[in-house]
Write a structure and sequence with these properties.
There is one protein chain. With 329 residues, the chain is of the alpha/beta class. It has a single domain, classed as TIM Barrel (Alpha-Beta Barrel). It has 12 helices and 7 strands. Strands 1, 2, 3, 4, 5, 6 and 7 form a 7-stranded parallel β-sheet that branches. The radius of gyration is 19 Å and the shape is globular.
Length: 329
């Protein structure tokens, strides 16, 4: 089996500084796939402009377009039954006007009430996923070549994962391999293994020790891997492993390059997806000094460094030297 790597840029359609960073990486030939969020009022024109600007790359298959499903940022598209949003609104005492707006970066706010969402409002979650899929098709005119979920929320419980994986398998659309790092950002994963195993040992996330947090953690730690492997055996298309957030370790380009090289050196004869989060701005005030999808100023600076690391180090050449080939969706 070959060493295969898919490089995906997440979060397109959220904000101009994110869109600009992704476009810079496309121009530099770094990105294989762009995963777009459709849950913002401006997503439609942002995505259509991207398709127009890079029409030749999309037409040739050099660049793919994927769907990044979101329950934690943007606005819900399925508005006929927003019961699960009412729960969040009641819990956080959000006023009526804001009730229909997803809380920025609220995955960790949703996790404590996943049992309730799953048992009483699973259909609403499923309908929201379908609505975002339909919106993608409406905007682009075709199904996504790849489906992922923002902060991995669709891998968070057995029932939600089951619907997510079946949805992708039934439509023959590759699904992102599950991971844990979004739930435990203190995990020094690249010091050990770039494969980012889905159940790292000796690591308990303090972030999840609330309400049903133990149960959720147990499912992610012990349950998702066998379910994912069974899904692949049953015909689900996905990479073997998932690599993310190497930028989160440092905002120094030189250090990020070392981490990136360490990842590439340790890649074995499997398929991997590396997700990147490019941004670009001249001044931090360009993102209006407010949280954008929960991204703080510090994170933006790390992501800007990641963008420059990717562009300046000719990632595709570094892959070629190590015998790593492009993973084909």
């Amino acid at each position: 089996m070959a060493k295969e790597l898919l490089i995906t840029a997440d979060d397109f359609g959220v904000h101009s500084v994110i869109d600009n960073g992704i476009k810079m990486c496309i121009d530099a030939g770094v990105i294989d796939c762009v995963d777009v969020i459709v849950a913002y009022h401006s997503s439609k024109w942002r995505i259509r402009r991207l398709i127009s600007e890079y029409k030749s790359k999309f037409d040739s298959g050099e660049l793919k377009l994927g769907l990044h499903l979101s329950l934690t940022c943007g606005s819900p598209l399925y508005r006929h039954n927003d019961d699960y949003l009412k729960i969040i609104a009641k819990k956080k005492k959000i006023n009526k006007i804001n009730r229909l707006i997803f809380k920025c970066n609220s995955a960790l706010e949703i996790i404590p009430i996943l049992d309730t969402l799953e048992s009483k409002h699973l259909k609403s979650l499923e309908n929201e996923m379908i609505a975002q899929y339909d919106k993608f098709v409406e905007i682009t005119g075709h199904p996504p070549q790849h489906i992922s979920s923002h902060i991995g929320i669709f891998h968070s419980t057995a029932k939600i994962y089951s619907f997510f994986s079946k949805f992708c398998k039934d439509r023959a659309i590759p699904m992102r391999c599950p991971s844990l790092l979004g739930l435990d950002k203190s995990m020094p994963i690249w010091k050990r293994d770039p494969k980012q195993e889905m159940f790292p040992q000796n690591h308990i996330s303090k972030l999840l020790l609330v309400d049903n947090g133990h149960k959720t953690w147990h499912w992610i730690k012990e349950g998702v891997k066998p379910c994912f492997l069974a899904s692949k055996k049953a015909g689900l298309s996905s990479t073997d492993f998932f690599i993310e957030h190497f930028y989160n370790q440092t905002k120094k380009e030189s250090e990020q390059k070392k981490i990136m090289l360490n990842i590439l050196d340790k890649i074995g004869n499997h398929s991997y997806e590396m997700v990147v989060h490019p941004v670009f701005f001249k001044h931090i005030s360009e993102y209006r000094k407010s949280k954008v999808a929960g991204i703080t100023a510090g994170k933006f600076n790390k992501r800007k460094a990641e963008t420059l690391t990717l562009i300046n180090n000719n990632l595709k050449d570094l892959m070629a030297v190590r015998g790593i080939v492009k993973y084909r969706l």
